[in-house]
Each structure stands twice: as structure tokens, then as C-alpha cells.
Amino acid sequence: MIPEAREHGRPVAKLTKTVAFVIGSVLLFVAVAMISASLVSTIYGEYETALGISVAAGITAGAGYTTRRFVRRPKMITVKEGFATVGLSWFIFSLFGALPYLITGAIPDVTNAIFETASGFTTTGASILIDPSELDRGISFWRGMTQWLGGMGVIVLGVAILPLLGTGGMQLAKAESPGPTPDRLTPRFQETAKRLWIVYVAITLVEVLMLTLGDMTFFESIIHSMTTMSTGGFGTEPTSIAGFSAYTQWVITAFMFLAGVSFALHYRAFSKPVEYARNSEFRLYTLISVVAIVIVAGGLLADLAPGEAIRHAAFNTLALTTTTGYASADFGLWRPALQIFVVGLMFLGGMAGSTAGGIKTFRIGVLSKAAYADLRRLVHPKGVFVTRFGGRRVSEPIVEAVQSYFLFYIFLFMSATFLVAFIDANLTEGLDLVTTTSAVAASIGNIGPGLGDVGPAANYAGLPGLVKWLLSGLMIVGRLEIFPVLVLFTRDLWRR
To answer: Can you tell me the mean pLDDT for 433-445?
Structure first.
């Protein structure tokens, strides 16, 4: 037993050091982001809030520096270390990200503060706040900043800026980036990460300009641009986007659609716009969006004028399919058939490589093609059928990975729904099936508002504390697309 323990000790020790070094580096980034929020508070004369956020930044920076100080920079990050690092990192910086809320007293309860932070970093947009307009500007900025950082990925930002994370950066990005595999724009992933972030920042700035031309203030434009491009959905008003003009709603609709597109595709299409039309996933994403908008608009025409029906259909449909979580109307009051359709939209998501959550268009396409191939195989047992997507052959390992992900996604959804219902049955007995189901779907898909007691006109404040902890974990699991978190509980990860 002793020799075996020694043999297994080295890889575990190396894994622990790698995890510690990357987490320390990420915490330093989080601290810098907190300082920017503190500066915003200072600009608006919120000196007490600025001091509280600065203290939170100091604690976070101290923890990050100390962690990095006592471990060496890893020479190489393996696939195993990449999954472990990303899986643990998101839980850690979600805890530290709650400090500005707690220290300033904006959200004094630990459970609520961590829920709001996890919802922010994972770009879920589920909130316990009744009226976000009552927040100080610095805290509101921090709230939006958590979503903007989480959209493209905090660790991917670290890979882009820090050369010391460049070695093995692909393994870290693979575990953190939405979609089956991160798209390379250059041979070195560090350069790819830089270009993705440049595109992300550029489109965000364009949206800020467009929103400023409407009825939003400059501050509101910044917050909503950050939370649109991250497909997060945190806003500054209790009614989400419903209180803003039709112009503002159409601008946000357009940018939600852009946020649901792969940022690598945006980069390629900048010099060659025809790349959009050539991309099979983009064509499917556009088709799904248009069909969903037409169906919802058709259902709303009985109650609204055509122009208003189309605007609300386009806005809320894209808010759901891209998992942004905004709302221009309370879809919890729509006809039952439309509400069922809304729940279905919660599972879709945008393209792989976008900031959207959900299952992703690529997986939907591959699943459909693979299912069709299986049907043909039943009719022609001796035939050879290949799964193709966009005219290209999809290898069997990718098909199996997509099917496995879908299976885990549905299993997690069903298990979590049962757990939430079981917890509520033993505590408050205040949640109905619609609320329970939609809250779980909205958390795993990183959507935000659901139906029932967690609909667009409500929030998550009334849920039992234990349910909030469970949903917080589901948000992180959904953002990292399940596997980086699940592998933390496997024996193979922690031994040679």
C-alpha cells in the first residue's frame, strides 16, 4: 500500500500545484475588476461603497498573490489538469466575487450574495434583487462586470494576457469555452484568445454607442452592453428592458443575436462577410431563430398589434434562445401553448464559441443528423450511413461525445428537478411544478428568468436557501458544460 500511495502522490501533488497557480492568477484578475468597480463608485461620489469594494479587492488580491507565491509556474498543463483547474476555479472565484456585495452591505446574506455572484459569472441572470435600480453605481457596475468577464471566460482572458498561462492554455480554454472544442484562429491559442477578446470588446463598444443614441444614459448603456454581449441579462431596472423604448429593444435584439454567434466566426467574417453564409451552424442558428420568432409572433397577434407582436416575439425569443435572460414582456402571462414553447426554447442556446448557454446549435444539428442516420440504419441494416453536418462528415467520436453530453444534460435536468422538489417538499412546500422545472432549466441553461414564481416579473429571492445553493451549483455546471465539474468526482482524475 505504501509504494502505491507514493506513486499516486506525485501526480496529485503536481495537479494541486497547477490548480493553485492558475486559481491564484485568476483571483488577481478578479481583484483588478473589483478595483474598476471601486473607481466607478468614486466617480459617482459613493466613497463608502468604493472603500468596501476596495477592501474586497484587497482580500481577493492577497489570496491570489499568496496562492501563486508559494507554488511554481507549471511547465505544461495536461488535459486532466485543465479540467480540474477550470472546474475548481469557477467555484473559488464565485465565492470571492461575492465579497463586494457582502462588505458593502448591498446583499448582506451570504447565500444570496453567492447566488447573485454565481449567476453573474455564469451569465445566468437569475437574481434575488427586487429592484436593481436601488444599487449604488459601483455595485451595479460590478454586477454587470461579473457577467461580462464570465461571458468570454475569465481563464481565457488570463490565457490571452498572461504568457505564463500560455503553456497549456488550450487545455484550460477547452474546459472553459462553450461548445465542443474551442476554435483556433492561430497556431498558438494565446493569440487566438487575444483576438477573441478584441472582437468581444469591439462589439461591446459598438453597442454602447448605439444604446447611448436611444433613451439610455451612458452608464445604463455600458451595463446593458456588457450583459447583452455576455448573454447575461443583468440590468438596472426591475422591469428588465420593458421600460425602455422600442428603439432600445430593437438594438438589444440585434446584439443578442450577434452574441449568440461564434466570436471566431465574427473575426473571420470581419474581412470576409461571406463567411457567415458559408457556415452551416450559423445558417441553422438563423433558421431556428426566425422560425421561433414567427411562431411566437403568430401566437401574440391575437392580443397585440402586428408591429408590437413582432417586436416582443423577436426580443423575447432571442433572449431565450441565446440564454440572455432579458424580457420586454412577462411571457409568464402568455397563452399556455406559448409558455410550453418558451420552455422548449430554454434548452437550445446559440452557436458553439458564442457566449450563450444551452445545448448549442452545433449539438442540435449533429443530434438530428445522427438520429436520422440511425432511422435509415433500421430500414437498411446492411447499409453504411455517415453523419454529416453542413455537408461535412462528423466523426464517430464527436457524434458519441454530443450524444453523451445530451444524455448527461437531460439526466442532470431531471435529477435536479427532483432534488429541488424534494427539498421544497421538506421545507416550505411553496413551489409548484412549473416554477421548479423552469428554475432548474433556466439555471442549467444559464438563462435566468423562468416561469411561475421565478418568471420575468418575479425573482429568486423567495426560494429556500438550500435550493439557492443547488441552483448556484447548477449554474456553474451548466456554464462549464457539465464535464469539467463532473470529472472532479471521478477517481481517475486524482490518480496516475
So the answer is: 91
